[in-house]
């Protein structure tokens, strides 16, 4: 009986000696929702690197957009002040025109009537002037009454006023009254371009009758085009007259145009945007009014607390970094970010990271571990 008990004791001791050791603790044993704990193997695979927040000069870059615009003095709407029929034109949108160039020919019977009236009054004025001078001489010698002299004077002045008014009307349709004779009366007149530029719109066709208020053509002088940017209210304090920027289009993002701020609007839209007008330093014919443009405005250097961009992770629309609580324990901490330059980003609340060790490489690995922990 003693032998049987001895054998059972030996078997129990052998079984206990062959029991396997307990495995290493699970990877996330912390109960805190924003803390991740790595075991030695995970820490090695994550290739975590740490650092501290650093102060350095950083210049901000404000990214905005807008459109190419033309000042009012460089845009011209061509109308026919007295109306008429469009007889001919060669204009097409995009066509170049020179100042003083004939761009259309108009026709109407009222042009003939105005020229006839001018020449008729001119002839009457010549007679009235002679009669006025004759009556003046007679009145001075008491050979005629004051009434007759005054009637002659009134007739002369009335005709002179009418002639001057008709001359101004003729000038509206580009007829020089002083050169008008009975031999060059015409039913057709020309419209001339008042600027050198390009045709932006053609609103009429041959044979159409136009009223004085109708716009026949729209011309643009592009030599003074400018960039009209829309800037958020919070960025306005960083801008100043004379500040430089670079603009580019979506079609050619690599082609940058140097610009200078010439005007900052004092009015805000309902979306808290202000207009900032910029001048192109070099004109390019590819820059046409209405073209959508992007712009990058570099603001002045400031001394700021910064971290590498790689140190930050985006989670649920917010920015976070991981602060090392120990060699294998890390706490996710929210930060407020600002300007970015040369791979470093400004931290606007550096006090939460002061004298703390921060993960500057491997932050996204920690974020994935933390998410997996939350899903368990």
TrEMBL record:
Molecular function terms, GO-annotated: transmembrane transporter activity
Homology family: Belongs to the membrane fusion protein (MFP) (TC 8.A.1) family.
NCBIfam families noted in UniProt: RND_mfp
Name of the featured protein: Efflux transporter periplasmic adaptor subunit
A Gene Ontology BP annotation from the UniProt entry: copper ion export
InterPro entries: MFP_Cation_Efflux, RND_pump_MFP
Keywords: Transport
Signal peptide positions (record): none
GO cellular component: cell envelope; membrane
Organism: Pedobacter yonginense
Presence of the UniProt keyword Plastid in the record: no
PROSITE patterns with a match to the protein in the record: PROKAR_LIPOPROTEIN
């Amino acid at each position: 009986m003693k032998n049987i008990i001895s054998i059972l004791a030996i078997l129990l001791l052998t079984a206990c000696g062959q029991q396997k050791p307990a495995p290493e603790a699970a990877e996330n044993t912390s109960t805190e929702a924003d803390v991740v704990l790595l075991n030695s193997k995970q820490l090695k695979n994550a290739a975590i690197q740490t650092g501290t927040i650093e102060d350095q000069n950083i210049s901000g870059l404000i990214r905005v957009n807008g459109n190419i615009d033309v000042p009012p003095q460089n845009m011209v709407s061509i109308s026919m002040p007295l109306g008429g029929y469009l007889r001919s034109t060669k204009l097409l949108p995009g066509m170049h025109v020179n100042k003083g160039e004939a761009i259309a020919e108009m026709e109407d019977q009222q042009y003939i009537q105005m020229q006839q009236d001018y020449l008729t009054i001119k002839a009457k004025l010549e007679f009235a002037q002679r009669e006025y001078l004759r009556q003046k001489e007679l009145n001075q010698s008491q050979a005629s009454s004051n009434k007759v002299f005054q009637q002659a004077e009134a007739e002369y002045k009335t005709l002179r006023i009418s002639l001057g008014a008709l001359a101004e009307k003729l000038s509206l349709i580009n007829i020089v009254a002083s050169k008008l004779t009975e031999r060059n009366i015409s039913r057709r007149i020309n419209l001339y371009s008042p600027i050198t530029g390009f045709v932006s719109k053609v609103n009429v066709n041959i044979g159409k009758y136009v009223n004085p208020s109708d716009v026949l053509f729209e011309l643009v002088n592009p030599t003074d085009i400018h960039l009209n940017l829309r800037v958020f209210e919070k960025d306005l304090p960083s801008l100043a007259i004379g500040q430089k920027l670079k603009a580019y289009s979506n079609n050619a993002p690599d082609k940058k145009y140097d610009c200078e701020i010439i005007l900052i609007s004092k009015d805000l839209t309902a979306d808290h945007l202000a207009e900032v007008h910029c001048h192109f330093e070099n004109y390019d014919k590819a820059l046409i009014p209405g073209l959508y443009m992007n712009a990058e405005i570099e603001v002045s250097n400031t001394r700021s607390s910064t971290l590498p961009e790689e140190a930050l992770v985006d989670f649920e629309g917010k920015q976070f970094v991981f602060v090392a609580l120990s060699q294998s324990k890390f706490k996710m901490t929210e930060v407020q970010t600002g300007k970015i330059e040369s791979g470093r980003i400004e931290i606007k609340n550096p006090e939460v990271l002061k004298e703390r060790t921060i993960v500057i490489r491997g932050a996204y690995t920690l974020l994935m571990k933390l998410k997996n922990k939350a899903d368990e």
